[in-house]
From TrEMBL:
GO molecular function terms noted in the UniProt entry: cysteine-type endopeptidase activity; formylglycine-generating oxidase activity
GO biological process, one term: proteolysis
UniProt xrefs under InterPro entries: Caspase-like_dom_sf (IPR029030), CTDL_fold (IPR016187), Pept_C14_caspase (IPR011600), Sulfatase_Mod_Factor_Kinase (IPR051043), SUMF_dom (IPR005532), SUMF_sf (IPR042095)
Protein name: Uncharacterized protein
């Protein structure tokens, strides 16, 4: 049987707009039905004074429906896949909503009504995060057409999102209403009635639920003296109207309608949709032989389709990249990395520039949180096969002071501030360290060796959204070369200057978060010592590292912290002002450069430092096992390019050459 999970949000009190009377009660009633009557596997509730939500690791998540709390929950909880394609994820929202420039926004309790695009939660973002759970079926129940005390029909819920079922409380140009006598909104009251109907009249499918609400909600409004309010339902694709919402209440004809949709999807070679529908039928009736045969048939069709040679396998010549960072020419092979050059006249598809507002968190010298800032970033998405993707922030070029400021502990000569500012060109960089899902997806699409064979499963800590680790510099450059061949874009490791520029994101403090670090912001060893933990069963804990003692778990005047003893998913902590996640801690990250004893030897134009006679390459960012001082923006380390370092501690994130895009 499939699993059902739900998120229920209800907001009565708003800081900057008029309150509502029954939104919280609506959300509580829906959550109660999901958890008790419907037997959902998990239900998350957001409301003022609601209990904290237990996290998979670290501190519990706050449940007050503020902008930060909702965004953080959606980011953290849905970074790791935990559901199957046949499972359902439900999202119920009762509160104010608003439509701005053809985009729907849900309004948290601290929304700025004059700046909804930066302080509201885009419905499309909610759907994107929910889909990361692994469930193919996303159901939105939006009683969010509530604007300034009434429920305005131009609130949220009118946006059609492909692959999603959306039930909205009213149609365009209508209002939705709260009914004092019922202590509920008209839509939610009708929805609760519909979901609890049993037998032949049950509303087990999207279509029957929609039909019920279309008649019942206007009737409720009429009975209590309110104008007409007609809910609307969007199901994309159209076959979602036959989707079975509540398997326990499904009828034989519901399954028959789904089978027709599945067979039709197969006839037009939409095997992914067909597979989803057959799995849905099997979730309702595990003994259905048609569904079992359909899943087998579709699986064979998808495997046959995958056997066709992709375009990159038809390329017969190998090109060696001859420029990096500032454009310095490098003799063949000395750079140590290969990628795309001309590819026989083929050119990659131009990427779509996307924007997002990110929440930037900072702390003072004691580690106390400071007022948040919101920054608009630009990025693009590189799709890697069907199941993986990489988001890359588009960074502007510019000058910046590279290295540690005077007096910044531990004041190592190798990281002291350069005598002159460093300049970098515009470039794109992955928003996260490469995940294990991305690592495997690239090898699935390009199993052919460019320079060297690499392991499909090198990591010590297993998980699709954990960073790939225990990889050498040579492994990382091989990955970049294969990604370049797949996409037609030029991928490589960042130069050391690019990495620090990306990490700082305009900051000049020890960390992009501020002058210290806390364990709510990054994954590091906050219990004391330079290094904590083991490596391949050998104890490596030590107070000393590279000739410096690190007895304290906090940095400077900041607090001590905890020690998780493992990596965390690549989006587990807040991003910086460029939208980049976990630049401090979690895993060390490879850079393109050879090791230089001081930063003044690096090229002024942000290019890679290349020198013969050494195989030492630069590492940046620190790791889960290291003292916060070793996770600073300016902290540097090095490692031989053929080695993978201590177990579970070294990964990487690629950059993409923009070449005028």
């Amino acid at each position: 049987m499939s699993e059902n999970w739900a998120i229920c949000v209800g907001i009565n009190r708003y800081d900057n707009i008029k309150p509502l009377a029954y939104a919280r009660q609506d959300a509580e009633a829906i959550a109660d039905f999901f958890s008790k009557a419907a037997g959902f596997k998990g239900v998350y509730s957001f409301a003022e004074d609601a209990p904290p939500i237990a996290a998979d690791f670290g501190q519990s998540l706050q449940s007050s429906p503020t902008f930060i709390n909702l965004r953080r929950f959606l980011r953290v909880r849905f970074e790791e896949r935990f559901l199957q394609p046949s499972d359902n994820i439900w999202f119920f929202f009762a509160g104010h909503g608003k439509r701005v420039r053809e985009q729907d926004y849900l309004l948290p309790l601290d929304v700025d009504p004059g700046n909804v695009e930066e302080t509201g939660i885009p419905v499309r973002y909610v759907v994107e995060r929910l889909r990361r759970s692994g469930a193919e079926n996303v159901i939105l129940l939006l009683d969010a057409c509530r604007n300034e005390g009434s429920r305005d029909g131009q609130g949220a819920g009118l946006q059609k999102i492909k692959g999603t079922v959306t039930l909205s409380s009213c149609s365009a140009a209508e209002f939705s209403y709260e009914i004092e006598e019922l202590s509920h909104g008209a839509f939610t009251y009708g929805l609760l009635e519909a979901l609890q109907i049993q037998g032949k009249s049950s509303c087990a499918t999207v279509e029957r639920l929609d039909n019920y609400l279309q008649t019942r909600v206007p009737e409720i409004c009429r009975l209590y003296g309110k104008p007409v309010q007609t809910p609307c339902t969007f199901a994309e694709p159209l076959s979602k109207r036959n989707f079975i919402l509540l398997p326990a209440a499904a009828r034989a004809e519901d399954i028959a309608a789904l089978k027709i949709d599945a067979f039709q999807a197969e006839t037009i070679d939409d095997f992914l949709l067909a597979e989803q529908l057959w799995w849905r039928i099997l979730a309702v009736d595990p003994a259905d032989m048609d569904a079992r045969a359909g899943i087998k048939r579709v699986g064979e069709a998808l495997r046959d389709r995958g056997k066709k040679n992709p375009w990159w396998q038809t390329i017969t010549r190998r090109q060696v990249l001859t420029s990096a960072g500032g454009g310095l020419a490098m003799a063949g092979g000395i750079a140590g990395w290969r990628a795309w050059n001309a590819m026989g006249g083929l050119r990659p598809k131009a990427f779509e520039r996307l924007t997002e507002f990110v929440i930037v968190e900072t702390v003072d010298a004691r580690g106390d949180p400071q007022p948040i800032a919101r920054r608009k970033i630009s990025y693009f998405v590189e799709q890697i096969g069907q199941n993986a993707r990489m988001e890359l922030s588009l960074l502007p070029g510019g000058d910046f002071p590279m290295g540690s400021a005077i007096g910044e502990f531990p004041n190592k000569m190798s990281e002291r501030l350069r005598a002159s500012p460093m300049r970098v060109r515009p470039f794109a960089i992955s928003r996260t360290a490469v995940s294990q899902k991305q690592w495997l997806a690239v090898q699935d699409l390009h199993p052919e060796i460019v320079d060297r064979a690499i392991s499909t499963d090198p990591s010590s800590f297993k998980g699709d959204n954990l960073p790939v680790e225990t990889v050498s510099w040579q492994d990382a450059t091989e990955f970049c070369s294969r990604l370049s061949a797949i996409t037609g874009r030029l991928y490589r490791l960042p130069t050391e200057a690019e990495w620090e520029y990306a990490c700082r994101a305009g900051s000049t403090t020890a960390f992009h978060f501020g002058p210290t670090l806390t364990d709510s912001l990054a994954n590091y060893c906050g219990t004391g010592g330079a290094v904590c933990g083991t490596s391949f069963t050998r104890e490596v804990s030590s107070l000393d590292y590279d000739g410096v003692k690190y007895p304290d778990g906090g940095y400077e005047n900041g607090p001590s912290g905890g020690f998780l003893g493992k990596t965390t998913p690549v989006r587990s902590y807040p991003p910086n002002a460029f939208g980049l996640f976990q630049m401090h801690g979690n895993v060390w990250e490879h850079c393109l450069d050879n090791w230089a004893p001081d930063l003044d030897r690096l090229p002024d134009d942000g290019g890679a430092f290349e020198v013969g006679g050494t195989d030492l390459r630069v590492l940046r960012g620190g790791a889960w096992s290291h003292n916060p001082a070793l996770c600073r923006s300016a902290s540097r380390d090095r490692m031989a390019e053929a080695t993978s370092g201590w177990e579970g501690r070294v990964g990487f994130r690629p950059v993409c050459e923009l070449n005028g895009e």
